[in-house]
Amino acid sequence: MTRTKEYKKIVATYHLSPTRWWNKRQLNSRETWNCPDHLANSWEVYLWSDLKFVIGPEVRSHRPSSVIIESLLLTLLADKIREGLPYPDWKMDLYHSEYLHLNFQERIITPGMVDEETLAPENLIDYVLWYGLKSELETNLLVMKTGSPVLESENLLRNMARIHNARKIAKRDAVINGIMTDGSKWVFMHLTNNSRYTIKHLGWETERQQIMGQIRNIFGKAASLYKSKAQPRLSLPKPTVVEISGCHIEDLPDSGDESEQSIDETSVPDVA
Q1: Where are the beta strands (DSSP E) in 167-257?
Q2: Is the dihedral of CA 268, 269, 271, 272 positive or negative?
Q3: Among the listed ranges 65-69, 105-109, 268-272, which one has the minimum average pLDDT value?
Q4: Burial 202-229 (b: 16+ CB within 10 A, else e)
Q5: 55 within 8 A of 67, measured Cβ to Cβ
Q6: pLDDT tens, position by position, 155-169
Q7: Residues 6 or more apart from 239 whose CB is under 8 A from it?
């Protein structure tokens, strides 16, 4: 990450520091994924084959990143959830709604923000992985899509730091992960409970197994957090993290058709 003026401001505001070189255990997952047969090609081969039928020739030279990213995240998360079910044929309608789940298109609100800030693109989160209550900000992963994941990764760090800081103020575990990607370049970030950050850059063409391993590792930690913290809870903590910190995450307001845009504008052809 380029140490821009804004990047330095984020680090100073939230009292962050880089992970020491001798303690870089984060983002070094060796986990791999043996993709189930019925999913083996769904998001890589079959999905792309189907997409070629519905997109114009101008964009066939590169893959629509949003579709690939969403398909990958949902496939990996569904597989991780199935691992945690009591038995393979467990009915999904009995599945606990507070267990791992992704929310789409959310924004982080902190005290003192004005409307222009809350709706600014750099403050919008494409995917939030929840393992517990929103009132406790129980998420361990924020994912942001962008056309320039390396150059714009300071926006991811800022949003991670907001959640990290809110949970730290409330004396909760403040570890959080982040991903910023265009589907080809993947920037992974990790913030420890002691406000130390680690950043790792991976490329889909040559490091896809590492990318999938990192994502699965994050999902696995979220599952463990649910089982150790959220599931055993008998009552709602009072006051909550949101009440203590004033920071909260909310869905984007419904704005008609615009709220349904989930594919990058750069990834679809202009239609007259």
Answers
A1: 176-181, 185-191, 196-203, 248-251
A2: positive
A3: 268-272
A4: bebeeeeebbbbbbbbbbbbbbebbeeb
A5: no
A6: 999 999 999 999 999
A7: 170
What are the tokens at 235? 């009552």
Q: Do 187 and 153 meet the contact criterion of CB atoms below 8 Å apart?
A: yes
Element (H, E) at 257: none
Which residues, at least 6 apart from 247, have a Cβ–Cβ distance to it below 8 Å? 108, 109, 110, 111, 137, 162, 163, 165, 166, 241
- Alpha-carbon distance of 212 to 202, in angstroms, equals 11
* 1, 263, 268 from 61: Cα distances, Å: 28, 16, 12
Distance CA 148, CA 50 (A): 26
CA dist 216 and 213 (Å) reads 5
Closest by CA position to 241, among listed 142, 149, 139: 139
Three-state secondary structure call for residue 150: coil
Pairwise CA distance, residues 200 & 172, whole Å: 25
- Which of residues 23 and 112 earns the better pLDDT score? 112
Q: What is d(CA 218, CA 62) in angstroms, rounded to the nearest whole number? A: 28
- Contact between 77 and 219 (Cβ < 8 Å): yes
The angle that helices 204-225 and 65-83 make with each other, rounded to 10 degrees, is 40
What pTM value is reported for the model? 0.81
